[in-house]
Structure of Coiled-coil-helix-coiled-coil-helix domain-containing protein 3, mitochondrial:
Amino acid sequence: MANRPHEVTFSVGLLEKLSGIRKREAPKPVAPRAPIQLPTRSPVSADAARLVAQDAQLTRQLQATREVAGLLVKQEAAEVARMRERAEQLLRLHSVAVKPAPCQAEAQACSSCFKDNATEAWRCVDAAEAYRLCSVRALDRHGE
């Protein structure tokens, strides 16, 4: 088959069908044309043919990789949903009420006093002592 010339014949009907044109008139008889003679030897080199084959193979592999990636993304979305649901279940089962930090009022009073009396810090001795005592009591309660 490599030594036989290839024949390509285009008919008006085929061209109209491919272009989507509908026939309005009856087709006129077409005189037979001489077939187009294509070269018998390949116009591409062996390296070019190898690269074309490799390109086709890489294209198939890329398509397969994209399909797998799509499946993995779908599976990942399902896994994320399951993990979120499981995390919510665990939080409902094992969560505890958050306790407020101790001595917040004393800490605020001490901080305000030092801001108001930046040059006379000795005026804040009582506020600092109250904060210290509250902290010591909180630590003692925590250790029990």
Notes: The mean pLDDT is 82. The radius of gyration is 43 Å. Residues 43-94 form one domain.
